Amino acid sequence: MSVLHLQQNNFQETIANADKPVLVDFWATWCGPCQMLGPVIEQIAEKMDGEAIIAKVNVDEEKALAASFRVMSIPTLIVFKDGQEKERMVGFVPEQQVMDFIKKYE
Asked: Is pLDDT at 2 greater than 90 in this prediction?
């Protein structure tokens, strides 16, 4: 499965209707650590296909969405389960750490 690109118009529906954990990567094109994390997020989406939903939000295009979750630094990774934010990590993190982070909420 590929990474979903969430926007204001599909964010709540995606989070609320998910029957598995949703990892959302808040990022921007100009952010170096975000660019390093991008391929990691793509790999996780492939490896966790069926186990979790992996999504991204471009904070430059979706400022209101980022503000609504108080995203102050990027990249910010937030895990949602049952429509609720469960936990977040800020900054670049290795693939295994991100996968373990998601698996806590399966």
From this structure: no
Instruction: Enumerate domains of the chain plus CATH numbers.
Output: 4-103 (3.40.30.10)
Which ranges of 48-106 would DSSP assign to H, the alpha helix? 63-68, 95-103
Amino acid at 7: Q
**Do residues 85 and 104 touch, judged by C-beta distance below 8 A?**
no
Chain segment 36-63, per-residue pLDDT in tens:
999 999 999 999 999 999 999 999 999 9
Hey, which residues are catalytic here?
Answer: 31, 34
Spacing of C-alpha 101 from chain mean position: 11
Exposed e or buried b for every residue in 39-53, given b needs 16+ CB within 10 A?
ebbeebbeebeeebb
pLDDT of 56-81, one tens digit each? 999 999 999 999 999 999 999 999 99
Q: Closest Cα to residue 58, out of 42, 41, 74, 37?
A: 74
